[in-house]
Amino acid sequence: MAPPPPGPDGETQKQVKAESTEMASQRRPISNILFIIAMQTEALPLVDKFQLIEAPSSDSVFPEGVPWVRYSGKYKDLTISIVSPGKDAALGVDSVGTVSAALVTYASIQALKPDLIINAGTSGGFKAKGACIGDVFVASDVAFHDRRIPIPVFDLYGVGLKQACNTPNLLKELNLKVGKLSTGDSLDMSPHDEAAIIANDATVKDMEGAAVAYVADLLKVPVIFVKAVTDIVDGDKPTAEEFLQNLAAVTAALDLAVTQIVDYINGKSVSEL
């Protein structure tokens, strides 16, 4: 009798198993959504909308001493968690930026095992790409604009281009705008950043998205980016002034869009989005 054909090696077996698990999760109805939201001002309207409860410090799933805040509860058929990096311990301001976003995304995936991540928040927009104050965009893909490594291949790593979860049915049903998202750790825009943002073909820019995308891709969790425009980066008003002026009104627009998205997701699998 001939010997059986050799089976796949250990690494190949792991890859096949991982791909099989991922395909199964794509077909299973979404039941657990994790929101990563940088600022409390952006998060609290959604906390109220979904009637979520803040987790007490005694029941934290995160390391002791971190300022991260978690709200959770049930909405329709979904378990929803909203996690924010919280306030800087020394300065009392929201812990915005890529470092906090990456850390809190990693820890939240490990602790909460979400089926889907939604990174929702405000952003700058570019009138040259058709963005207006109050517009809400779903990002098709995300990249960094301030990680400049001018060495072959390292330059591509620095840009860190990642695709968002493909949601053609959701976009069509809700008639949502789509654009590319570019991420950096500065609110303003230097000439170097501007050149990179143009190269990224971005419609909106933020300070967290690409970091969330990196971690989500690393841990194989699909992610949707929903960004509402507070300021026109290539406009004639100072960015910080325009951001603060429009934050409350634009957060209301973000709240409405996110609610519509969650209502659409309820009862569907990732592959149906």
Automatic annotation (TrEMBL):
It comes from the Eukaryota. GO terms for biological process: L-methionine salvage from methylthioadenosine; nucleoside metabolic process. GO terms for molecular function: methylthioadenosine nucleosidase activity. Residues 33-261 form the Nucleoside phosphorylase domain. Coiled coil: none annotated. Gene3D superfamilies: Nucleoside phosphorylase domain. Residues 11-20 have a biased composition (Basic and acidic residues). Residues 1-25 are annotated as: Disordered. This is OLC1v1003418C1. It comes from Oldenlandia corymbosa var. corymbosa.
